[in-house]
Structures
1.
Amino acid sequence: MDAALLPSGIQRVLVTGGAGFIGGAVVRRLLTDSEALVFNLDKLGYASDLRSIELTLAELGQRGLTANGDCRHQLLKVDLTDAEATAAAVKQADPDLVMHLAAESHVDRSIAGPGAFIESNINGTFNLLQAVRAHWEQLPEERQAGFRFHHISTDEVFGSLGPEGRFSETTPYDPRSPYSASKAASDHLVSAWHHTYGLPVVLTNCSNNYGPWQFPEKLIPVVILKAVAGEPIPLYGDGANVRDWLYVEDHVEALLLAGTRGRLGESYCVGGGNERNNTQVVQAICDLMDQLRPEGAPHSRLITPVKDRAGHDRRYAIDPAKISTELGWKPRNSFEQGLVATVNWYLANQKWCAAMTDRASYSGERNGVQPWMV
């Protein structure tokens, strides 16, 4: 994506959760492929990290495109649950586009501690909407006309599919976990602020993301790192739960298209078209590890069934026809291509993984285990 794909009126972009996995990828793309000023609002929680952005700024500096630490990226250390600080951050950023990615997102953690998800995903979104609405209402007419608020959500708000069919923009909401319920609530808030107050919004709901720089508690990095260490690889239940896997860089392209070109008040479903059950994903990683680290082969011997997650949705799949037809988006990477890149990245960046897990006091254990689950 290049600067021409950002409308000329979008010169200042506020990204919430820009030190997270997907948010960080959005920030990096904006820095490398646009000239926009990027304001990165993040509370810097356990899964946050700025290393990838620092490396991007350094690389741009080496290429003579920007100085290291250039003011095009400004970090705003703010927790959205603090309404006053949120309002001050929005005022400082003075954005033309807001991309709202900040959220507590790990289902297992939401089972163990749902309160944090209610506070962050619902109350935090409310505070942001109020601050952004006040900002938008006082903009000059020309800037106000081009302003957009893009809310990034998940396919988990739609619940669980049977063996047939795919989620679309008209699928009824049916969340099954504290995480997905909190995201569903935030989606409804955003839609309500559009219909009630006229706030110009776009929503997207994505399938499971994967790729470099993901915090090592999610399925794919967990499997890679367990395989490297020769430790048991956990497989929930019967391993037949299906997800539609989306490479993070493909998702970023969809987000920037929807956020800048999508129709106001509309939602767009973003999926990779890569349905795999958990057994297939884990086995594919083990096969790659056998090739890349043959001394540990066969890594599949490490696969260990564990008690299934409470309320574990059976299948997700997305129909991306709307964003494809209206905006011309389609994923560039097959699951196989993305997985090879991801496995190689984690093998080459084990020091980063260790630093992240140490900082978060996370040692690879399963999160959210309750007495009735063991």
Note: Residues 8-207+248-271+316-332 form a domain with the Rossmann fold fold (CATH 3.40.50.720).
2.
Amino acid sequence: MNTAVLSGKELAGVIQQRARDEARILRSEGLGTTLAVVVATEDEATHWYVRSIERAAERAGIGCRLVDLGANAGQAMLAHVIEDLSAEPAVHGIILQTPLPAGVRADTLVGLIAPEKDVDGANPLSLGRLAVGQPAFAPATARAVVELLDHFEVPVAGRNVAVVGRSTVVGKPLSLLLLERDATVTICHSKSGALERYTRLADIVVVAAGRTGLLKGSHVSHEAVVIDVGTNVLPDGSLVGDVDEASVTGVAAGLSPVPGGVGSVTTALLLLHTVEAARQHSPAALLAASTSRI
């Protein structure tokens, strides 16, 4: 069987163009759009990712403010910066990049991000709103998986989907998004036992566990579509996913590559979420909301 390569590059380009067009419209109305990225680490992989966001934002005509606090930043400093950014009208989106310094509580910090600026769905309020069907920004990586399935016209409604990984960044919010699309979702994790008991029954398998080569060809059925969300850096500096690509190729009907799959779509969605946040809180939008309450 030929396994289709589900590249995210074309889709990322489409989403980036949408963000670029909307940012241009906002500028024509006298409104800027700014994404703030808060960093407190010397991790080179993190800085590489942040630089990719900066380049993408520049191409889209979106301001990107890097707030690099250094690897010695403490809880109080980070909290102060996030609260200030949440209150600043000129900032429309906020991302708190991980990893963080030892002893810093990320769960407390993300709760300080204003939900209307939480473009990566990190605040627990965003996840709660997502769970009950209220407007909220989904984590960009979770939404990227759904967008990629839509782009390649992979049916979701009524299909069995196995999500491997239960993080609040991908696994849990992705499951909510898929449930909204009428999929039957099984979440697999470290205590689930033999993985193939679940993944071989699935029409779609999404792997987001952070373990190199976790999913092998023996774990999936023929005709299954596999989306690899993993990003693992090998000793030589190369990037690989959670799927054993060599053994899955020829078995699965489709496989998203790493790199070049979900990751590029995620970055584009962060920019789109930022312009959406700017639009929602533009003077015109706020006036319309105020008028509707009269």
Note: The domain at 140-263 is CATH 3.40.50.720 (Rossmann fold).
